[in-house]
Amino acid sequence: MSRWRISAESGAVVAAMVAAALPAAAVTVTGGGDHGQYLNGNACVDGIVTGYLLTGAAPAHDTSCAANPLPVPDPARTGPYALS
Questions:
Q1: What does the pLDDT read at residue 19?
Q2: Single pTM value for the model
């Protein structure tokens, strides 16, 4: 068992410190999901990542994209695929 415990708040502080220390560009998604944004219908993220993959051109430092709305449960469906 690890002696270290990191809360969500302290994890966010550490992440911000690491991001500030790195010279590389970062893309954040605000107002929603925190992962799985690429090729998931977020045109802002898709454009930035695809551009980087095709040309190697990184976005400006601290680029931000708005998140897509979170999925809504579909009452007609059940199980792990109940989100529409």
A1: 67
A2: 0.57
